Amino acid sequence: MPSATLSRKEVSKHDSEEDLWVIVDHKVYDLTDFVDAHPGGSVVLTQVAGQDATSAFYNLHRHEILQQYSKLCLGVLDNETPEVIDPQPGDLSQVPYAEPLWLAPQFAQFTNQYYNASHRRLQKAMRVFVEVHVTPEAKEKEKDGTFISQGLIDKMAEANILAMRLGPGKHLHGRKILGGGVVEGEEFDYFHDLIVSQELTRHGQRGFQDGNMAGMTISLTAVKQWLNNEELRDRITEEVLSGKKKMSLAITEAFAGSDVAGLRTTAEVSDDGQHYIINGTKKWITNGMFSDYFVTGCKTKKGFSVILVPKTEEVEVKLIKTSYSTAAATTYIQFNNVKVPRDHLL
């Protein structure tokens, strides 16, 4: 923030649309070049031009708006001090009960049987990461409906956030989490897992929340647990956790939502006995638009089977516009004689 000090008398001279200053929380902002871009129109701003607009501003906006437009701040009023807390990445909320009680300062002195120092370090590091890297993109993608960027996926992969989203397990052993010194992969437990999930959703953008690799968390877990081909399982796990490949769970159909036993997608053994030939459709598949693999529920002669299906020309995907943002990449999928090796069976 600029260190200049200004008087209220000086601010009052800038009271027109062509030269518009306002005061918010003892700080002076030059909104002259912002008038035309203001979502509420120019009239709202001209009504408070040259004046203290603190009450008017906080009646309509969250404080974070000022942080987004901090470059418009000219300085602070002479002999006055801002009163509103300016939250920084990683800060805990000062609003009562806005944080889990185990994070409240008044309880920090007590021994907790569930949360230890590593949980506190992870919470702090995750919050900083989300506020710096995830939240800005989440708001942008929720607004324009586009999908998560490869750049953010790469950052999460490098910090091993993608790996943490699968929960505790050997896949985390030896990994350097969030730059190291936060939590060892070998000690990662379900309370660490809970913290990761909670912090990743703090941006409040519902569509992007699902668009942020939610499909991976419910499909790669199945691959790790039930794909018997060890070489294939390990290769795909590393591809996905490195962010190079994406994955989603393809179970639901228009014909069978929660009634999984009623699905109609079929998988028949090929004439040479080495492949499955898959035909059918899936609907409402989260992240399907950018997935390279689909963990797909099928009907076989033996009943119900789940097969790992790589994306090929025979797999056609179409975007579904749901009641929330298309940033979730919700998808309608058609499988047209898709040929998949039999060792892709889970």
From TrEMBL:
GO terms for cellular component: cytoplasm. This is Cytochrome b5 heme-binding domain-containing protein. Keywords: Heme, Iron, Metal-binding, Oxidoreductase. Residues 3-78 form the Cytochrome b5 heme-binding domain. One of its GO terms (biological process) is fatty acid beta-oxidation using acyl-CoA dehydrogenase. SUPFAM superfamilies: Acyl-CoA dehydrogenase NM domain-like, Cytochrome b5-like heme/steroid binding domain. InterPro entries: Acyl-CoA_dehydrogenase, Acyl-CoA_DH_CS, Acyl-CoA_Oxase/DH_mid-dom, Acyl-CoA_Oxase/DH_mid-dom_sf, AcylCoA_DH/ox_N_sf, AcylCoA_DH/oxidase_NM_dom_sf, Cyt_B5-like_heme/steroid-bd, Cyt_B5-like_heme/steroid_sf. Belongs to the cytochrome b5 family. One of its GO terms (molecular function) is metal ion binding. The lineage of its organism: Eukaryota, Fungi, Dikarya, Ascomycota, Pezizomycotina.
